[in-house]
Design goal:
With 95 residues, this protein is mainly alpha-helical. It has a domain at 1-51. It has three helices and no strands. The mean pLDDT is 75.
Length: 95
Amino acid sequence: MLRDQNRRAMRVALSLAIVLVSVAACQVSPTWSQEAGNPKAGNPSDRLGRSGGVIAPPKDVDPRIQRPPPDPGERTMPVIPPPGTPGGNPNVVPK
């Protein structure tokens, strides 16, 4: 009797596993552009080319995100031109 119950439990478990696997296999995963909510967005490289190489956040996420960068003021790093170029040190000889 215990052996019959074990067999019945194994059959139920196997049937349930087969059903779950078949349901999971039937589901269609969305493409990347559909997940973003814009199915006509296309290839990410094409979109980056159209935007001039600028990646902007979506406009409906948080309007406070879009603000100008801070003015660096006196904290800017000086640009030192390399030797041999206009403005560079002509006395330096590269190795």
